Amino acid sequence: SVYKNDRLKFVKESVQSILEQTYSDFHFYIVFDGPVSSEIENYFTMLKDERIRLFNIDKNEGLAKALNYLLLKVLENPDYKLIARMDADDISLPLRFEKQRNFLSENVDISVVGCWYKEIDETRQHLCDRKLPVDHESINRLYHTRSPFAHPSVMYRRNLIEIAGFYPTDTVLMEDNALWGKALRAGLKFANIPEYLLNFRKDRFF
Hints:
Blueprint: H1 8-19, E1 28-33, H2 38-46, E2 52-57, H3 63-75, E3 82-84, E4 91-92, H4 96-106, E5 110-120, E6 126-130, H5 136-143, E7 155-157, H6 159-164, H7 175-185, E8 189-201
Parallel strand pairs: 1-2, 5-8
Antiparallel strand pairs: 3-7, 4-8, 5-6, 5-7
């Protein structure tokens, strides 16, 4: 999801990090959540990658509704079995999709997989490393105090949405943790890959 406060430099870095994944057989769903800057519109107009599917929502209504809009589009295609999340200012490392896809292929009981991540600032300078619990039981315990995933790091099976439902739209900045709670109550299992596969941007301007 891209919205009016997103900055072109960050959006470019985020988009390129997805287009340059070592696993390349995917479609890239992007939505403008309300009007965006002309420079961002022009950037996407110039992108010629056939994997991109671009949509527009007339009015900004927040991340949860934008993600649910995209999920409805994605779930129309029964061939899609896995869904990966990404934010418009973070950077996925090249092996992220490949490693997460392989992990889910080898661990059929897991519905959602995240990863460890590094925090960076607006200039891409390293701030700190973030390790998260790896196994389901540890993730379940952490869920009760804070989010057990970096939201833009996750890849999940389509059955997460089919079983647990869509992102709740009545929360404030916690739509991901609300979804994880519904999934846990439905008996779905989680994991994190103990590798740094995402650079998560902490922007001092927002």
